[in-house]
Amino acid sequence: AELTSGAAGAAAGDASGLCVLSRGCDPAMAARASKLLPPLLGNVGMVACTDDDDFFQLLRGRRYDAVLFAPGACRFDAARQPIPGGNSATAGWGLEQYRAAVREHQGSDVPIVETAAEAEVVPLLRAALGLPPAG
């Protein structure tokens, strides 16, 4: 399933002043998604990371308009396996602990997007960013 498969006609809307922080576990996929997703999401800014040292530095560094846990990370969590890229402080963490950390650093109102299905990433992020549905 491709990231772009849920994005038919998704160019509508302007999110160029917004920014999404994405925590994944595959550096190649994170780099690819950082190029593919912005045009499908109103040219939103994307900051992707694949390890917790970077993730927590980024979480503390600025306010994000949404936080995405990438499909691979969600699949590890669903299988009750640690999400790759953890550090000594987050060893064994699942999405429940990551969600709490996002709330602690970003506040209770920042949208958190999680899905194990690549085809759902664009529609869920569009909704989280307040963009009209693709179509």
The helical percent reads 40-55%
Q: What name does CATH use for the topology?
A: Rossmann fold
Integer tally of domains: 1
What order do the helices and strands follow? EHEHEHHEH
The number of helical segments is: 5
**Spatial strand sequence of the major β-sheet:** 2-1-3-4
Number of strands: 4
CATH class: Alpha Beta
Structural class, by secondary structure, is alpha/beta
**What integer value in Å does the Rg equal?**
14 Å
Low-confidence parts lasting 5 or more residues at pLDDT below 50?
A: none
Major sheet size, sense and barrel closure: 4 strands, parallel
Terminal CA distance: 18 Å
Please state the second-level CATH architecture: 3-Layer(aba) Sandwich
* Dominant shape: globular
Strand content: 5-15%
What is the average per-residue confidence, as pLDDT, rounded to a whole number? 92
Question: What's the quick description here?
Answer:
The chain has 135 residues and is an alpha/beta fold. It has helices at 27-40, 52-61, 71-78, 95-106, 118-128, and strands spanning 19-23, 45-49, 66-69, 112-114.
Can you describe this structure?
This protein has helices at 27-40, 52-61, 71-78, 95-106, 118-128, and strands at 19-23, 45-49, 66-69, 112-114. With 135 residues, the chain is α/β, with parallel strands linked by helices. It has a single domain (3-128), classed as Rossmann fold. The longest helix has 14 residues, at 27-40.
